[in-house]
C-alpha cells in the first residue's frame, strides 16, 4: 500500500497494474464452485466463517468434514451470551472464529468477552483470535477503531491465564510482532498460530523471515497454513506456493505446516485422508 496525503485522494487499495492480477469471484455461486474445486483438487479441509447462509451452503456442497464451520464475535454487543451458547450447542459450528476485537478497538483480554471464551473453554471448542496486522492503512481507510497496539500477542496473556483449558490459535501469527509471538508460545504450551493473511499481503522476504524465525525458535510443530482468501480463490495456490517453495523448510516441516499441525490441533482423524501420492 503506497503512502499518500490525508488531504488528497488516496491511492487505490486494489490494482490491476501487475503481471498476473488475482481476480475476485464473480458471485456467491462462483465462489462456492471455485472453493469446492480446490477442496477436491488439493485434498483440502478448511476452517471457514462468515455469512451463515453461505456457510451452510458450503458445508452441504463439500464432502463430509471438509468444511469446518466457525462462528466469530468481536464485541459483546454482537450476540448475547445465551445466543452464543445456543449457536455452539446445535453442533453445526465447530470453532469460535474469527474473534477480532482489535478492529473494534478492544483488547482480546477485555472482561466483556470473558463469558464467550468461557463457553468455548467449557465446550472444548477451538478459538481463533485475530492478532497483529489488519492490512495496510486499516485505521485510516476502513476501520477507524482499529489499533495496531491491540494486536500485540502479549495482550493474550491475561485471557490465557483466566482460561487455562481454552484451545487457541493466533490468526495471522501476530504479524509483525514475531518476538512477542515467540515469547507467548514459549510461555503457553498450547498456543498455535496460523499464517493466513500475512502470507500473501506483505513482501515475501519479510513473510519468509517471519515464518523462519518461528521455526528456528522451535515452534515448527505449532504453525498452521492458512489463507484469509476473502474474495480471491486463487490465493489458495498463491499462498500454498509460499510454503512449497520455502527452501529453509524440510519436506517434513512443510507437511507439518500444510497438514499435520492442523490435523492435530483440530483433532482430525488423519487416517480419513487419502493423499495424492497414495492413489
TrEMBL record:
Keywords in alphabetical order: Lyase
Amidohydrolase-related domain location: 51-267
Protein name: Amidohydrolase family protein
Signal peptide coordinates: none
Domain of life: Bacteria
Pfam families from the UniProt entry: Amidohydro_2
GO MF assignments: carboxy-lyase activity; hydrolase activity
Source species of the chain: Draconibacterium aestuarii
